[in-house]
Amino acid sequence: MSIRFSKTIATTITAALLGIAQPAMAGGQISIGFSPSDPQQAQALGMGLQMFSLMQGLSASGANAYQNGSGNAAGFFQGGAGNHGLIYQNGNGHTDTVTQTGNANSCGLFQFGQATNAQCTQTGNQTGITTVFGF
């Protein structure tokens, strides 16, 4: 009986030590995106992004970035009229770019957690939103 008990304890301790010695999981990210399928949805989403920008103390047009954390990078290129790009980064080590050419584009990129990477490219009369969670 004591030999079996000792083997069980030794097996449990070995399994626990192997669990501790395993390398850490590599980081990753999960992205969820939405692009409206009709003009009414596009208008509603565009208005929602503008309202969100205003609630954050940003502008309802042009390029807007909100960053909370360290090591975050946000970049914009806008060519055309009536474009609205919003980057919202909460966490550390995020990288994000919004490229809008043509007119009347609206894009929202939201990043949470750690070390995510996202891009938005629009070429005219496009609306979309992407949320990225990093771990």
UniProtKB/TrEMBL annotation:
Keywords: Signal. Residues 1-26 form the signal peptide. It comes from Pelagibacterium lacus. It comes from the Bacteria. This is Curlin.
